[in-house]
């Protein structure tokens, strides 16, 4: 790190990281990486019907997450559908410079961000990683080192799968009411 007085002449790792991260998605949450959505499948009629059958949990979710409203004013089935079927790019953490108590005027030499992608069925983690690397390079950020900590193929069990239907039947016979089947993919 250097003294922040050197900011007019030295690069800031913190600003570089923030600027690189800003290329990944729009303020509304749409991922900007070219080809990111190419393999995303539309929800099936059965999945959409299951979403429509879900009880409205908007108030409970707002309270649990301590938010006044959801992104884009989402509510009801539209909120549940986006939560279940939309892939994401998320900043899980960001660290750079001095973060302790009090003041310290530093120009950070290093920055680290942890991001995660929540993929949906038909998206390939290796393909998305390659697209991320290409995107950063094309945006002029090929100096940013990417370290992966794990990849998982996104999966979903079809709602009309016999095992799902059998479990639903058993649950209904036990509880006396039809269970809500949540069609979350990922």
Q: What do you see in this structure?
A:
By secondary structure, the protein is an alpha+beta fold. The chain folds into three domains: about 1-40 and about 85-150, Alpha-Beta Plaits (2-Layer Sandwich); about 45-80, no CATH class; about 155-180, no CATH class. The protein is built from six helices and four strands, in the order E-H-H-H-H-E-E-E-H-H. It has helices spanning about 15-20, 45-55, 60-65, 75-85, 125-140, 160-175; strands at about 1-5, 90-95, 105, 110-120. It has a two-stranded antiparallel sheet. A two-stranded antiparallel sheet has the order 2-4. The chain starts with a strand and ends in an 11-residue tail after the last helix.
Nearest-integer average pLDDT: 91
Number of distinct beta strands: 4
- Just give the CATH class of the largest domain: Alpha Beta
Give the % helix.
25-40%
Annotation field: number of helices: 6
What is the radius of gyration computed over CA atoms, rounded to a whole number of angstroms? 21 Å
Number of domains: 3
Question: Could you say which structural class the secondary elements and strand pairing correspond to?
Answer: alpha+beta
């Amino acid at each position: 790190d250097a003294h922040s007085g050197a900011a007019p002449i030295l690069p800031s790792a913190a600003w570089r990281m923030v600027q690189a991260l800003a290329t990944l998605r729009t303020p509304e949450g749409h991922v900007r990486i070219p080809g990111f959505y190419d393999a995303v499948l539309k929800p099936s009629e059965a999945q959409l019907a299951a979403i429509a059958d879900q009880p409205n949990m908007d108030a409970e979710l707002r309270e649990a997450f301590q938010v006044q409203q959801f992104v884009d004013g989402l509510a009801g089935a539209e909120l549940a559908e986006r939560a279940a079927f939309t892939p994401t790019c998320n900043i899980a953490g960001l660290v750079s410079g001095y973060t302790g108590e009090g003041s310290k005027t530093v120009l950070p030499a290093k920055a680290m961000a942890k991001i995660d992608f929540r993929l949906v069925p038909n998206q390939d983690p290796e393909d998305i990683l390659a697209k991320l690397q290409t995107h950063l390079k094309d945006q002029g950020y090929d100096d940013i080192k990417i370290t992966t900590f794990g990849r998982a193929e996104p999966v979903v069990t079809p709602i009309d799968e016999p095992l799902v239907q059998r479990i639903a039947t058993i649950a209904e016979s036990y509880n006396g009411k039809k269970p809500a089947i949540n069609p979350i993919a990922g």
